[in-house]
Amino acid sequence: MIEHKNNRVQPPYSLLAELTHRCPLHCPYCSNPLEMTLKDHELKTEEWCRVLTQAADLGVVEVHFSGGEPLLWGEDLEALIHHATRLEMYTNLITSGIGLTTEKALRLKDAGLANVQVSFQAGDAKLSDQIGGFKAFDQKRKAVQAVKEVGMHLSLNVVLHRLNIDSLDEIITLAEELEAGRLELANTQYYNWALLNREKLLPSREQIEQASKIYEEAISRIGNKMEIIWVIPDYYASTPKPCMGGWGAVALTVAPNGDVLPCPTAGMIEGISFENIQKSSLNQIWYESTSFNAFRGEVWMPETCRSCDLRHEDGGGCRCQAFALTGDATATDPACHMAPEHSIIEKAVQNANSSSEKPSSPVIYRNYLQHLK
Amino acid sequence: MSSTIPKLAPKGRLKYDKVRGNHLLLLPEKVVVLNDSAASILTLCDGKDSVHTITEKLRSSLQLKSSQATTNGLPDFQKMEEDITNFLKEMVDQGWVVMQYDRAQE
Ligand code: SF4
Ligand code: SF4
């Protein structure tokens, strides 16, 4: 039995295993850090197997293999899926689809893979390829066919922003046509690459309203034939989103170099040092580490949140967003209308809704080579 | 309904979670905590047995558990099949179980 030093801390349910930061695409909203892990510093197959075993012992029941592009990792992904399946964990592959042939899909399925989530950048080839900075659309369609052919469950993921939200209709049609079981419409989260490009990516209020109509229509038309997930983005909501069930509450991320993080973007918070799987066990990190305990409970909360009844629901919002926008990870998430620094969000929203010409600075595409750790 | 054959949807996996001491239904992006009876019904949804057979199996395992007790302690068969049917309908609505129609038992 695990001895819980801190009785309130429950075991995590899910692990995001980021195998590599390398990716053939260059999405300008990529949630990967600006400084990426070099190939030579990526964990190897045996190290990941150890992580998986420790995760299962800790209570993790779902593993999401992600990246970058996990199929570019180059080590033995099938062995990891096989290992996780033997440990009775649910396995999901989060992929751009590049490199997923029918043969590969079959091997992954045989290894035990339960679900494949393929990302699209838009509903049509031209825009999708333009946003991803890579001619990927046709390959993605082929990957989807491969997943279907071998009979795995298919989810589609599309990150929404100013440049593609107007064609939400087409995105939903594409998902229906591809017979996805689930369509995840993820709002761009403005950290890392996305924050660099916020002016280009933040939709206007009108766009959001139009998109919500299309979404509602689709939900009632499609019913339970395809699950569609979307929420109003936090820049346009009055209170923040609870961050993945809370900091160190239900999920954890292991980065390509073995750093263990409460969420995929937490690495950008300065002043917190995250422990590495090569030095400590997952159990130790989950229950004992300073980083995971930093924002558990309510002690760390600023007065605004501590005296607010909504703190049980949203936990004071996202720590990464608080840090990214205010420089202080313990601040109330500026997305909250009660936050002292809410004006940061208001300004960005105002800007996104003003009719004046936007300065024509180019979109900054995510680039691996120029940003190595 | 009695002769339809329920099967756990291919995207779902059942698991007994030793760490928490719970039965779980694992789905893409979702973990559902099951109570014991839900877990025992879903375990039998293997695409081979009809709702009727599943009811029989569950009933006899209940019988085994209360070994000394007489059948008096057991719920009425019809009532039990009805409960199981209702539960499965919910599962079908959620998309976690699929129903197949069995021609052999027509
Ligand atoms: S967001 Fe785009 S660039 Fe980033 S990992 Fe995903 S597919 Fe690659
Ligand atoms: S004040 Fe804090 S707890 Fe209250 S709604 Fe805003 S972020 Fe949430």
Order of helices and strands of chain A: EHEHEHEHHEHEHHHEEEHHHHHH
Head-to-tail CA distance between termini of chain B: 11 Å
Mean pLDDT of chain B: 87
How many helices of chain A? The count is 15
DSSP strand count of chain B = 5
Mean pLDDT of chain A: 92
The chain pair with the largest interface is: A-B, 24 and 16 residues
Name the quaternary structure: heterodimer
Please summarize the sheet with the most strands of chain A: 9 strands, mixed
Number of helices of chain B: 3
Sheet-strand content of chain A, in percent, reads 5-15%
Number of strands of chain A: 9
Task: Describe the largest sheet of chain B.
Answer: 3 strands, antiparallel
Radius of gyration of chain B: 14 Å
Low-confidence stretches of chain A: 1-6
Tell me the radius of gyration of chain A: 20 Å
List the helices and strands and how they pair.
The complex is a heterodimer of chains A (373) and B (106).
Chain A: E1 14-18, H1 45-58, E2 62-66, H2 77-86, E3 90-95, H3 102-111, E4 115-120, H4 125-132, H5 137-150, E5 153-160, H6 168-177, E6 182-187, H7 192-196, H8 198-201, H9 205-222, E7 227-229, E8 251-254, E9 260-261, H10 282-288, H11 290-293, H12 303-306, H13 311-314, H14 319-326, H15 343-353
Parallel strand pairs in A: 1-2, 1-8, 2-3, 3-4, 4-5, 5-6, 6-7
Antiparallel strand pairs in A: 8-9
Helix pairs in contact in A: 1-2, 2-3, 3-5
Chain B: E1 5-8, E2 13-17, E3 22-27, E4 30-34, H1 36-43, H2 51-65, H3 77-94, E5 97-100
Antiparallel strand pairs in B: 1-5, 2-3, 3-4
Helix pairs in contact in B: 2-3
One iron/sulfur cluster is lined by residues 23, 25-27, 30, 32, 67-69, 96, 119, 366 of chain A.
